[in-house]
Amino acid sequence: xxxxxxxxxxxxxxxxxxxxxxxxxxxxxxxxxxxxxxxxxxxxxxxxxxxxxxxxxxxxxxxxxxxxxxxxxxxxxxxxxxxxxxxxxxxxxxxxxxxxxxxxxxxxxxxxxxxxxxxxxxxxxxxxxxxxxxxxxxxxxxxxxxxxxxxxxxxxxxxxxxxxxxxxxxxxxxxxxxxxxxxxxxxxxxxxxxxxxxxxxxxxxxxxxxxxxxxxxxxxxxxxxxxxxx
Length: 230
Known about the structure:
Layout: H1 15-32, E1 44-47, E2 56-60, E3 66-72, E4 75-80, E5 85-89, H2 99-229
Antiparallel strand pairs: 1-2, 3-4, 4-5
């Protein structure tokens, strides 16, 4: 009877579920296909030749590993791990390890898968925590970016204000220089006017004195003339 092939029903199905299903199939095969998976209840003799008349050279226990050398139905010549050779009925041989060993291997595999699953869950939790931390850091970075952007815009505005203030200051300094120049000119003109005014007053005073002197002189002559006539 041919060994039934186990097909994966779903690529996304967890491995431990597949292994459990495989175990069920193997147990069912062991019950219904005893001619293929022979599990003798007694010890199996290893003989020198093909027949019960040949001497038994060893007694094999269930699950004993052997090396298959040749087959001649219904017999098979095998070699033991010790190097001893002999013939055994082929029906007692199976290309698959004993069901007990398979169960042990499946249990070990299940244990390993459970440990791997636990590690995977731990790694997933760590990744989740790391992702949460990354999101917090990203949010903080975005807030910092917006703050820096606002500061930069404010700096641009301040720079524009400084440029305008500097231009106003330059214009004011230029106007002040012009006013200072005009003030110097006015002061010079005022000084000249003051000098001219003083000169005019001096000349006017001198003229008054000369005029008074002339008037006195004329008045004196007139008085003398009148005295002489008398």
